[in-house]
Amino acid sequence: MLMGLAMASGNDSPRTSSAVVAPSAGDPPAADGSGASAGSAGAPSVSAAAGAAGLTVATPTAKVTKAAPFDGDGIFVVGSEIAPGRYRSASSEACYWARLSAADGSVDAIIANGIDGGSHTVTIESSDKAFETMGCGTWSPVG
To answer: Quick check: pTM over 0.85?
Structure first.
């Protein structure tokens, strides 16, 4: 997503606005060699336009490869939010976890799960798509 500045009418204070720029199929490559499309009207690439506006273009999030502690309730995508690995949960009275083959909330996506009190140790595989946790506290890498 490219972030830009727009001036509010009658006001000199900038406000942030965003626009998603997607090239059309068959657009010629940009003349700046960036690999971005110049667009069908010959407009500058997203990188060139952002540079001219004094902005940087966000790059895709790097793949998470090293196990690190994480906490909170929710569904975490393996490889982009958490790394595969062996984790242990903090002790709690009620903890639910699930290794998932999809992050769509379906029961069929559950590879393995557990629910009860105490600490849990789970190995999240690189083939898992997501990991769900509720009430478990912080998950810390083991070994």
So the answer is: no
